[in-house]
Amino acid sequence: MEHIIRVTAEIELENEQEVRELIEKCAKKVLEEIDFDAFVDVTIVDDENIRQLNAEYRNKDTVTDVLSFPMYEFLNGKPLEQLEKDPETGKIMLGDMILNYSKALEQAKEYSHSPARECGFLTVHSVLHLLGYDHEREEDDRILMREHEEKALRSLGLVRD
After folding, report:
1. pTM of whole model > 0.85?
2. How many other C-beta atoms can be found within 10 angstroms of the C-beta atom of residue 89?
3. pLDDT at position 43, please?
4. What pLDDT score does 2 carry?
5. How does pLDDT run across 109-160, given as a tens digit for each residue?
6. Mean pLDDT over residues 10-21, rounded?
7. What's the structural domain count of the chain?
8. Pairing of β 92-100 and β 78-79
9. Are the beta carbons of 44 and 11 closer than 8 angstroms?
10. Is residue 161 part of a domain?
11. How far apart are CA 79 and CA 93, in angstroms?
12. Which segments of 3-156 are extended strands (E)?
């Protein structure tokens, strides 16, 4: 399967190509492991952009690290509604991921691991949310999501330092 991950940066990044490739690789890894043929749009933003989106769409006027906007409703990787392939790509559009790169860098420092590990985690986490995994639903769901996160990150070599 050839997954499509479109990454757009709305902010200036010193290492933009490297960040884009990391996000693409991490998102594709999740889709491969879940065995779902899809595409995802990713936008890299800063604190102010994500605060505005969080306020507008979630009624939370705060800065966050990543937002996931699913196109369809899923439950733990299984669609709960009829999915339609995009006519241009022939893939299912999972949704949009908004990654706050500023917050990712801050959290990497706070958790004492690399920015790549933090961006990788946030990407994997967000794509799993697009597929209906939710760590806030029930304990079994939280455990399942964490297992998928750790498996993907481990296979990518993005382990905690």
Report:
1. yes
2. 14
3. 97
4. 83
5. 999 999 999 999 999 999 999 999 999 889 999 999 999 999 999 999 998 7
6. 92
7. 1
8. unpaired
9. yes
10. no
11. 12
12. 4-9, 38-45, 66-70, 74-75, 78-79, 92-100
In this structure, what DSSP letter does residue 10 have? S
In a domain, 49, yes or no: yes
Amino acid at 29: K
Handedness of CA 22, 79, 39, 55 (dihedral sign): negative
Domain CATH code at residue 78: 3.40.390.30
d(CA 102, CA 141): 29
Give me the chain's average pLDDT, please.
Answer: 94
Contact status, residue 101 vs residue 46, Cβ threshold 8 Å: yes
Angle between helix 101-110 and 115-130 (nearest 10)? 120
Residues 6 or more apart in contact with residue 52 via CB below 8 angstroms = none
Domain that holds residue 137: 4-155
Provide the residue type at 127 as one letter: V
Quote the tokens at residue 160.
């905690």
